[in-house]
Amino acid sequence: MSKLLITILCSCLLFAGCITSQTSTGSHHERVSRDIAEILAKAEQDASIGENIRVTVNLLTTSVTDSFAVGGLMQRVYGDVTVTSRSEAFAQSGLQISVAGEDFSAQLDIAKQKLKSSQDSELFLVLADGATGSINIGKEITVPRFYYFNRWYSGINYEFRKAGRSLQVTARKLPSGLIEMELTPVFSRFLSDGGDLEMTELTTTVTARPGQVVVIGGDTSSGENVANALLGYRKEGEMKETLITVTPHIR
After folding, report:
1. Is 224:154 a contact under the CB 8 Å cutoff?
2. pTM for the full model?
3. What is the Cα gyration radius of the chain?
4. pLDDT confidence of residue 128
C-alpha cells in the first residue's frame, strides 16, 4: 500500500510539472524529477530498515538405531567454509555446525522415508536486524554429566538434572545481502541457583544466503560431551538424538 501511495505521489508531482506555463523552461521538470528520485530512494531505505529476519527451524528427532540414515547427510555440507568465528573449545564439544549443499533438503526427505520412528517439528523466529531469540530444543529434559571448556560441571552439584535446552540466535543483515547468525547453546534453569548456563565459549558465527540451510548436529556417541547433552535424549533405555536445520529469510 505504501509503495502505491508513493507511486501516486510521484505521478502527481510529474503531472504538476507538465501543466505549468508553456513559457517555463525544463528546469521545473528537472527539479521535480530530482524530487521524485529522492522520494523513491528514501522509500527504498525505509523499506530496508523495516525488513525483519525470519529464521525457520526444523527439529528431526530419531532413535539412535535410525541415526545412520541421517548421519550420512552431514557429509553433504560445506564444512567450515561459511563458519566465520568459532572457539577452540568448540572442537571438544562434539557439535557440528555447517552450511548445507544445494541437494541437502532433497536428500533429507529421502532419508526421512527410511526412518522407522521419528518426530519432525517446525518452528520459526521473526527477529529485527541484530535482535536475539531462542530455538527451543526441549524442556525438562534430563541432562547427563558432560565435559565443557576443560572442566567438569559435576562441581555445581547436580546428577542428571532436568533443564531446558535451546540455541540462542542473534541474526544480522550484512551489506552484501548475506545473513549472519550467532549461535550459542543454552541450558535453562540449570545452575544450582536456578540460573541459565549460556555456553558463550561455544558461540559460533555462521554466514549464509537467504534461504540457505544451516545444519546443526553432532557426535552423541560420547556420553560426556556437549553434543550429547544438548541433542541427545536418554530415558528408561530409550535413546534418541536430534538434528536441527536453520534457514534464514528476509521478510
Report:
1. no
2. 0.71
3. 25
4. 94
The residues, any chain, with a CB within 8 Å of residue 139's CB and separated by 6 or more, are 164
What are 58's strand-pairing partners? 122, 245
The x, y and z cell numbers of residue 91, run together, are: 572442537
3-state DSSP helix/strand/coil % of the chain, to nearest 5:
30, 40, 30
Q: Is residue 90 helix, strand or coil?
A: helix
Q: Average pLDDT of each block of 10 consecutive residues along the chain (251 residues)?
A: 46 47 53 65 56 91 74 59 63 82 82 82 92 87 70 48 86 94 87 79 89 85 77 74 90 83
- Report which of 51, 157, 39, 58 is spatially closest to residue 104, judged by C-alpha positions: 58
SS3 174: coil
Strands (E), the chain: 53-63, 83-85, 95-99, 118-127, 132-142, 147-148, 151-152, 162-173, 179-188, 197-198, 204-208, 214-218, 232-235, 238-250
Q: Do residues 181 and 208 lie in contact, with contact meaning Cβ atoms separated by under 8 Å? A: yes
Q: How far is CA 102 from the centre of its chain?
A: 17
The grid coordinates of residue 42 equal 528514501
